[in-house]
Amino acid sequence: MVRYGFIHTKEDIKFLVLFAMDLLPFPVSFSTIVDLTTWCDEGFGYFELSEAFYEMVPTGHIEEIPDKGETLYAITEKGREATRIFEKQLPYPVREAAQRSALRVVRQIHTAVTEHGPTDLTVRMEMEQVFAVEMNVVSHGQAAMLERTFKENAEAVYQTLLTAMTKNYANEKEAQKP
Description:
By secondary structure, the protein is of the alpha+beta class. Helices cover 52% and strands 21% of the residues. A hairpin with a 3-residue loop joins strand 5 (120-127) and strand 6 (131-137). Helix 1 (10-22) crosses helix 5 (92-106). The longest helix is centred in the C-terminal third of the chain and has 27 residues, at 140-166.
């Protein structure tokens, strides 16, 4: 299978992982690393990433942090040093994509349900320091569905709302007049 992209070697993958982890202010799960890095380049897949990533734990570039049944990972000082030395070896488009991807991860996503009555609930969904929206629903099932959908698609929800709120509706109304 031919893969297109800039990142192909195990060392390139390691540099990308370290670069991306250096942008994060907190430890993250391996699944977050997968999301963070595979979004940046199409030259490698999950198995190559997994192999490269887990080789950096025993070398001291990444540390494991046990957290309530899930292992989190953080870049070490040794990993940061390697990032500073080799960062320019990553192609600019990959570095830029990693920065955008890290920003996505850093933005904290919160949801909360407030019950006003048996069939009167408010769901607050927030992407910290970006936007928040509140919606009224009539059941806990609807509230749970809104929370789940928002947590899985917060960026897409934001883009959809932004598009809708910046659309020039006046021009459309003018065009529809007979």
